[in-house]
Amino acid sequence: xxxxxxxxYSCRVFDFSSLQKKHHLIKFEVQVQKGHEVLVHHLVxxxxxxxxxxxxxxxxxxxxxxxDKTKQPCGKIVAIWAVGGEAFYFPTEAGLPVAEPGDTExxxxxxxxxxxxxxxxxxxxxxxxxxVTPTLRLHDAGILEVTAPVDTNLVIPPHQSNxxxxxxxxESTVTEFLQEYPNxxxxxxxxxxxxxxxxxxKTRVIHKGxxxxxxxxxxYYDFNYQDFRRANRTLRAGDSLILECTYDSTGxxxxxxxxxxxxxxxxxxxxxxxxxxxxxxCQSKPLYKRFHTGPVVGWWSYLAPLTSTFDAIDWTNxxxxxxFKDSLENDQYFYVYGHxxxxxxxxxxxxxxxxxxxxYTEPPNTQCGV
Length: 370
Description:
Layout: E1 7-14, E2 23-31, E3 40-48, E4 61-62, E5 77-82, E6 88-89, E7 94-98, E8 106-114, E9 127-133, E10 139-140, E11 142-147, E12 155-156, E13 163-169, H1 171-178, E14 185-193, E15 198-207, E16 210-211, E17 216-218, E18 229-235, E19 239-247, E20 256-257, E21 268-274, E22 279-286, H2 307-311, H3 318-330, E23 333-339, E24 343-349
Parallel strand pairs: 7-10, 11-22
Antiparallel strand pairs: 1-4, 1-8, 2-6, 2-7, 2-9, 3-5, 3-8, 11-21, 12-20, 13-19, 14-18, 14-21, 15-16, 15-17, 15-19, 22-23, 23-24
Domain Copper type II ascorbate-dependent monooxygenase N-terminal: 2-119
GO cellular component, one term: extracellular space
GO biological process, one term: dopamine catabolic process
């Protein structure tokens, strides 16, 4: 049953224990109930620790409203689909491992329903179909998520035609987890995600100060067509990543914040690769130090929401916009990365240190006439 709410995140717990031995996931495909194409916005499957096994195949629940934190989606992603996407096939040499020996983690399927007309009495049977095989392929695949935290720290001022928000995964993190692969890991797909203000998304790669061709570059991002970008690239020690989301807020009169609703915003890239690395998540969020006016008792004081401050700003003032952009480009960020032991490490980082000494120059397009 879909509530008569603008935004609902519905969750359900399941497992693969019936498989009894390691399999590879080689294809996933979302089945949207006919007539509900507008209702179902996206679907994500997570692999999470600590979930009570009694919840397997129990009724759906609202993902982030339960006091039991183990029932909330975690950082390990198994499958991702958004509106406009099609079936995803893994390359013939790789598959995502499920039902590995000794693995007790369960899976949460999260479905985002977008119901702006607040329709009531709707029952949805959409879901996801996994194709798995006991015949293991050559490589285990993995997914690295590079994301802005989904909260009010993502700030998009109104009246902007090309406002850029960036997320970072720094060189030391990538090197720490990829140094065991002398030849790097193969990136075979990238899914980039934003909401209605999203105009363009690019996942940039810098190798020891020299920018490479982007892993993915959606110059004309379309909210209604969010499919994977196939890739044939290598990610290696010495690389760093910058995810850039460009927003068009010219039709807005108020600040748009990060959040789960379609009317709020996101900035995420999911990087599918093999062999699987232990790194599964990079997050960064600006601290906006120059905009904090309250007492500071430690660095954590800068994580406090600033919605009242930003809501009161005159965003039609060009000098205010310049100051805000300068803050994003030069002030510290709170930086978090997660790895396979379900542990997160955090530190502060300087965004200026992330940018290349030698920017990438896109070759001229010789395929099109002028």
